[in-house]
């Protein structure tokens, strides 16, 4: 019984964990409401101390799983929200009064079918309103603790976009891709067809994502614009795997390979052959990007620096700078978003792609998420968390015993004392 609350709460947080891969203690807040009935039952059977012991075990089980799955200490604010909900749920459960006589029966099915009047006292008394209020407070905290959606910046910066990817249209209609929807909260976007238009654009920042082939004049204009102080994020994919319904040869299809390899090598780095398959790429600072058939960089020149464990190169180009990423599939919403309808909710992100792209362009988005390192890490985290909960429950049996049980007496029984006989 002492281990059951922790196991139920731990399993209850799995859907949110498996949906996005985010290790967020707030994902266990709603399952933590199960502590209300469990605390009431434990109080009736073993006392208040046992209920609090099980509550501490539940917190330890969840936090140990969160730490071991991401191998990073959980963020302080989500932990505080979880502790607040757990505390309110425990107090609410301890205020309910469950009939002890029903709980002491051996047949639990018979207890569940007992008459309604046997359970009425659980909701009667002076603590009823307080208990219900705490339960509602815990439920409200679950809603208030949700990470807010990305809000529109009051003064968005100008951003030019040159791309061959379907970021501004889909199925022949003008529709923003989810990554564009997020970027519009921080930038005033201006799609351009050619680098020649950069001279007349007020934007000082450029997103260049797998563009079509440029002429020599366009390449010279692009290099000159960056050299004069421009800032560019270049997504150059040597093996694009973006799903497209358009037939081969259609001019609207993006290039299957990057056509900027010569320009990138001129800036100071060289692309390596791509690796096949989808991969979760950790950048080294805890952030993760999901890439597909991504490449890497080598032979960095004096003005370039390779970061992100080989996936990203940062180069100084005259007075400007270029951040080059060896993959363009990473901005496909199928690789960073669990639900395309709620792209502005960070809780639905499955990778740090929006935050990474916005940061490379000079803006900020919510950061600091913890991610499951791998499938094996998750399995080990759950295994050790369950062992922690069982060990804590076993330790609790040393201090708590079933209420009403007679103490163990190993002494030999004494003979009954004869009573004197009285006549008539």
Outline the structure in words.
This protein is of the alpha/beta class and 424 residues long. It is built from 14 helices and eleven strands. The strands form three sheets. The protein has a seven-stranded mixed beta sheet with strand order 2-1-3-4-11-10-9, covered by helices on one side. A two-stranded antiparallel sheet has the order 5-8. Strands 6-7 form a two-stranded antiparallel sheet. Strand 9 and strand 10 form a beta hairpin. Helix 3 crosses helix 5.
Topology (SSEs and partners):
Elements: H1 4-12, H2 14-20, H3 35-46, H4 48-70, H5 76-95, H6 100-103, H7 108-112, H8 116-119, H9 128-144, E1 157-163, H10 178-183, E2 187-191, E3 205-209, H11 216-227, E4 231-235, H12 261-267, E5 270-271, E6 278-282, E7 288-292, E8 297-298, E9 304-307, E10 312-317, E11 320-325, H13 353-360, H14 375-399
Parallel strand pairs: 1-2, 1-3, 3-4, 4-11
Antiparallel strand pairs: 5-8, 6-7, 9-10, 10-11
Helix pairs in contact: 1-4, 3-4, 3-5, 4-5, 4-14, 5-9
Question: Brief overview, please?
Answer:
It contains 14 helices and eleven strands.
Key traits:
single chain, 424 residues, alpha/beta, seven-stranded mixed β-sheet, two-stranded antiparallel ribbon, 11 strands, 12% strand, elongated
Structural class: alpha/beta
Beta-strand residue fraction: 5-15%
Shape: elongated
Give the % helix.
25-40%
How many distinct helices?
14
Please state the average pLDDT score. Answer: 86
């Amino acid at each position: 019984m002492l281990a059951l609350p922790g196991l139920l709460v731990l399993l209850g947080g799995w859907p949110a964990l498996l949906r996005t891969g985010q290790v967020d203690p707030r994902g266990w807040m709603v399952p933590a409401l199960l502590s209300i009935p469990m605390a009431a039952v434990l109080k009736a059977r073993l006392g208040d101390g046992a209920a609090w012991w099980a509550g501490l075990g539940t917190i330890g089980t969840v936090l140990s799983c969160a730490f071991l799955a991401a191998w990073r200490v959980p963020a302080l604010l989500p932990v505080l929200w979880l502790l607040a909900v757990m505390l309110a749920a425990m107090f609410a459960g301890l205020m309910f009064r469950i009939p002890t006589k029903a709980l002491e029966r051996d047949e639990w099915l018979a207890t569940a079918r007992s008459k309604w009047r046997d359970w009425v006292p659980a909701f009667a008394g002076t603590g009823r309103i307080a208990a219900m209020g705490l339960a509602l407070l815990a439920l409200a905290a679950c809603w208030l603790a949700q990470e807010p959606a990305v809000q529109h910046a009051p003064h968005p910066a100008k951003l030019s976009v040159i791309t061959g990817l379907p970021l501004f249209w889909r199925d022949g209609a003008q529709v923003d891709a989810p990554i564009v929807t997020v970027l519009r909260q921080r930038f005033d976007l201006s799609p351009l067809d050619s680098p020649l238009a950069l001279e007349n654009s007020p934007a000082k920042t450029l997103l260049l994502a797998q563009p079509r082939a440029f002429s020599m004049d366009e390449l010279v204009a692009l290099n000159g614009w960056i050299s004069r102080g421009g800032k560019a994020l270049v997504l150059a994919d040597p093996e694009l795997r973006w799903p497209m319904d358009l037939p081969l040869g259609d001019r609207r299809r993006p290039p299957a390979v990057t056509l900027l390899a010569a320009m990138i090598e001129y800036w100071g780095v060289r692309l390596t052959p791509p690796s096949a398959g989808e991969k979760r790429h950790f950048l080294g600072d805890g952030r993760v990007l999901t890439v597909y058939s991504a490449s890497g960089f080598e032979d960095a020149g004096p003005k370039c620096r390779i970061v992100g464990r080989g996936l990203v190169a940062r180069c100084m180009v005259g007075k400007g700078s270029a951040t080059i990423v060896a993959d363009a599939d990473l901005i496909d919403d199928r690789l960073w978003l669990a639900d395309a309808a709620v792209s502005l909710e960070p809780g639905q992100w499955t990778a740090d792609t929006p935050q990474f792209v916005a940061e490379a362009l000079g803006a900020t988005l919510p950061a600091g998420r913890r991610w499951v390192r791998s499938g094996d890490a998750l399995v080990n985290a759950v295994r050790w968390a369950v062992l922690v909960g069982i060990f804590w429950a076993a330790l609790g049996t040393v201090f708590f015993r079933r209420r009403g049980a007679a103490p163990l007496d190993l002494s030999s029984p004494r003979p009954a004392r004869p009573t004197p006989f009285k006549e008539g």
